């Protein structure tokens, strides 16, 4: 296990290799468990005020208590109720945050981030105009975007029906659904970067693959066997958070923004290779435009992207 982990993480140390985040504000969704939990921990230890996004208050409070026990250094962790399962709830969560803070430097979201990010974006644009700002948006993708269903050369997102795919006939339906979810996360991140660049807004939008992390063994058809295999060959969630942390706060990204703009990061901080679908400008544009149309039909109006 140790050899596998060192091979994936190299010499990266989030305690030493992240920039000082004193005075910065971050949001990490799914922050009460797994990769999100450790991302919260390491950003807080560098001095950030981190909003731990989670649906359940009890679980969030338990996570915060555990984080405080492990030690947060000069940072602070605050619960933010975030439920991204419904776009209206996502909008409400973002609006709740906007009532609490005057800046947002880092947003790390693990799924269903379209509405949440768009509502927060005006504040992030405002933050990007401040002196010594370095605003980043991290979309947690996965190498699963290269799996069969997400590699379909005929894939399109032109209408609502294109999103409602049937997975029941697949060998492992949950994995197929997961691969499609992670493909859309990457497409969203890249399209967001393109639209930010059109207005010369200095925000970096980064999709990442955290590595093969032991976070979902219990959800496989063979949980006992899967957990044994994952313990042997997969990283633990703490090591799995390293690429999220790199994307959020590595000084290298601030120093070489052109290198990392449109990059897809793999452990730890290495630029990976995307599938043809993930690189598709047309698919990314379709996904964005159709999502906006669907939301408009739901009476959810999102702020425009402009300086």
Name the descriptors:
two-stranded antiparallel sheet, alpha/beta, globular, six-stranded parallel sheet, Rossmann fold, 14 helices
Task: Describe the protein's topology.
Layout: H1 2-9, E1 25-29, H2 34-45, E2 49-54, H3 57-70, E3 76-81, H4 87-98, E4 106-109, H5 114-128, E5 135-140, H6 160-163, H7 173-198, E6 203-208, H8 223-233, H9 237-240, H10 242-249, H11 251-255, H12 257-260, E7 265-266, E8 270-271, H13 276-279, H14 281-297
Parallel strand pairs: 1-2, 1-4, 2-3, 4-5, 5-6
Antiparallel strand pairs: 7-8
Helix pairs in contact: 2-10, 4-5, 7-14
Structure report:
InterPro entries: NAD(P)-bd_dom_sf (IPR036291), SDR_fam (IPR002347). It comes from Pholiota conissans. This is NAD(P)-binding protein. With 307 residues, the protein is of the alpha/beta class. The protein has a single domain (2-297), classed as Rossmann fold (3-Layer(aba) Sandwich). The protein contains 14 helices and eight strands. The chain has helices at 2-9, 34-45, 57-70, 87-98, 114-128, 160-163, 173-198, 223-233, 237-240, 242-249, 251-255, 257-260, 276-279, 281-297, and strands at 25-29, 49-54, 76-81, 106-109, 135-140, 203-208, 265-266, 270-271. The strands form two sheets. A six-stranded parallel sheet has the order 3-2-1-4-5-6, sandwiched between helices. Strand 4, helix 5 and strand 5 (135-140) form a beta-alpha-beta unit.
Question: What is the compact description of this entry?
Answer:
The chain has 307 residues and is of the alpha/beta class. The chain has a 6-stranded parallel sheet with strand order 3-2-1-4-5-6, sandwiched between helices. It starts with a helix and ends in a 10-residue tail after the last helix.
């Amino acid at each position: 296990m140790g050899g596998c982990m060192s091979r994936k993480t190299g010499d990266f140390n989030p305690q030493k290799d992240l920039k000082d985040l004193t005075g910065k504000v971050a949001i990490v969704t799914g922050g009460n468990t797994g990769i999100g939990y450790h991302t919260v921990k390491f950003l807080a230890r560098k001095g950030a005020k981190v909003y731990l996004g989670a649906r359940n208050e009890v679980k969030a409070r338990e996570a915060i208590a555990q984080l405080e026990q492990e030690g947060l250094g000069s940072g602070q962790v605050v619960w933010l109720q975030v439920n991204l399962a419904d776009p209206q709830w996502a909008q409400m969560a973002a609006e709740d945050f906007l009532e609490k803070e005057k800046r947002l430097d880092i947003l790390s979201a693990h799924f269903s981030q379209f509405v949440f990010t768009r509502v927060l974006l005006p504040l992030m644009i405002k933050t990007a105009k401040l002196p010594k700002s370095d605003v980043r948006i991290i979309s947690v993708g996965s190498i699963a975007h290269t799996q069969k269903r997400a590699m379909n050369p005929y894939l399109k997102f032109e209408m609502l029906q294109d999103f409602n795919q049937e997975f029941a006939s697949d060998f492992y339906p949950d994995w197929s659904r997961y691969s499609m979810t992670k493909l859309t996360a990457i497409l969203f991140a890249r399209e967001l970067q393109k639209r930010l660049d059109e207005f010369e807004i200095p925000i970096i939008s980064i999709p990442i693959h955290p590595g093969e992390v032991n976070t979902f063994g219990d959800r496989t058809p063979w949980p006992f066997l899967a957990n044994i295999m994952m313990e042997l060959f997969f990283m633990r969630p703490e090591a799995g958070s390293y690429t999220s942390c790199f994307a959020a706060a590595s000084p290298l990204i601030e120093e070489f923004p052109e290198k990392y703009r449109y990059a897809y990061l793999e452990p730890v901080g290495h630029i990976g290779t995307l599938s043809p679908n993930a690189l598709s400008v047309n698919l990314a544009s379709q996904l964005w435009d159709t999502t906006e149309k669907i939301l408009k039909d739901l009476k959810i109006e999102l702020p425009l992207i402009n300086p």
